[in-house]
Specification:
- There is one protein chain.
- The protein folds into 2 domains: 209 residues, Ribosomal Protein S5, domain 2, CATH 3.30.230.10; 141 residues, Alpha-Beta Plaits.
- Helix content is 40%, strand content 23%.
- The strands form 3 sheets. Strands 1, 2, 3, 4, 7, 8, 9, 14 and 15 form a 9-stranded mixed beta sheet that branches.
- It is globular, with a radius of gyration of 20 Å.
Length: 363
């Protein structure tokens, strides 16, 4: 039996621009995890009490997934087993059981990346059951299999920052080229060197993250990306100019963080958010709104050192960095009682750690 876990994520820097190589992003894990337990068994079985499925199936190049809520774990298992077969490894039947920390919520409204976390944890558990060193020399392979499986389950190739965070934890990340995923060259493309860039980017210990749901606010990220692509096609030069400026601010913020210059980090971090909000206005997507802008400004005077709508924006959540526990508590108190929007603070903190082998399965 093997138990592996992977964290959810927060994209602090690089919303939208991370989709365009070679723009940088800053992503961290959170201290809430998805767990995957793989136990050798006579049948191939998938279990999740939280999502209400428990079924046995078979593998013969394909896996019949008998519950749509299990599509990510089924996709992972299919790819892992095909990879092992192609490498001449003996494969095992197993029972795969998953459990998500309650902070994710069944619908993951906080945008913590539950699908990426379950994909990565499941990949690690299955491959560890087959004697792979998933936290050591084989971690890069686990990351690439997870990227491939996630894109297959979603039906599209994303930037991959969420999988990167689940695998490696806090990182400066530049996406891989979509051409790296070449199904016709399976499994060789998984063994090749991909062109993503991942550098550890642990946030300082004096940084305290505060995250909250913004009730009644939401935006479809996929629809926003469609609007961006349509706008980019009509305005390629303006898009290039805006993303170049945005990437400069983002890179400067990450560099300042690395050098321990908090004030410079804040300056470039907030300027990057302003450019991201402007980008939303240009493409016609509600990346931010006047009320949300006001909420951010008020947060900055009530305990937040730096504050923005994380990831693609849109208001599902708000995230801030505070410089003390007292500032974090003051900010969360403001959020709970502010008159601008209804905000629900979440009991979530930053984690710099990615894939982990566990001794206990919480489910």
């Amino acid at each position: 039996m093997v138990i592996c876990s992977a964290p959810g994520k927060i994209l602090w820097i690089g919303g939208y621009s991370v989709l365009d190589r070679p723009h940088v992003s800053l992503v961290t894990g959170v201290d809430k995890r998805v767990y995957a337990k793989a136990e050798e068994s006579s049948d191939l079985k998938f279990v999740s009490k939280q999502f209400g499925y428990d079924f046995t199936t078979t593998f013969n190049e394909k896996i019949e997934c008998k519950n749509d809520k299990a599509k990510f774990v089924c996709t992972v298992a299919e790819i892992c087993l095909n990879y092992l077969k192609a490498k001449g490894k003996a494969t095992k039947n197993f029972t795969l059981t998953t459990y998500s920390d309650p902070a994710f919520g069944i619908e993951d409204k906080a945008g913590l990346g539950s699908s990426a976390a379950v994909t990565t944890a499941t990949t690690a558990a299955i491959m560890a059951l087959h004697e792979y060193d998933v936290t050591g020399k084989d971690k890069d392979l686990i990351h690439k299999i997870s990227q491939y499986a996630h894109s297959e389950a979603q039906g599209k190739i994303g930037s991959g920052f969420d999988i990167a965070a689940s695998a490696f934890g806090a990182a400066k990340y530049v996406r891989y080229s979509p051409t790296m995923i070449n199904k016709e060259n399976f499994p060789q493309f998984l063994d090749s060197d991909w062109d993503y860039e991942i550098q550890p980017a642990n946030l300082p210990k004096d940084f305290h993250a505060a995250i909250a749901n913004v009730v009644g606010e939401s935006m479809s990220t996929s629809e926003a990306v469609k609007k961006w692509k349509a706008w980019k096609e009509i305005n390629p030069e303006e898009n290039k100019k805006l993303f170049t400026e945005l990437n400069q601010e983002n890179a400067s913020a990450i560099d300042a963080l690395h050098k321990g210059n908090n004030e410079s980090f804040k300056q470039h971090f907030q300027k990057g958010w302003e450019l991201t909000a402007l980008f939303g206005e240009k493409i016609g997507a509600a990346v931010s709104t006047p009320q949300l802008n006001e909420l951010i400004e008020e947060s900055l005077t009530n305990g937040a050192f730096a504050c923005k709508l994380p990831g693609a924006g849109g208001g599902d959540s708000i995230a801030a960095i505070c410089l003390s526990k007292a500032d974090k508590e003051r900010l969360e108190e403001f959020w709970r009682h502010n008159a601008i929007k209804k905000v629900q603070p979440l009991q979530i903190g930053i984690s710099n750690e990615g894939i982990r082998i566990e001794t206990h399965f919480p489910g």
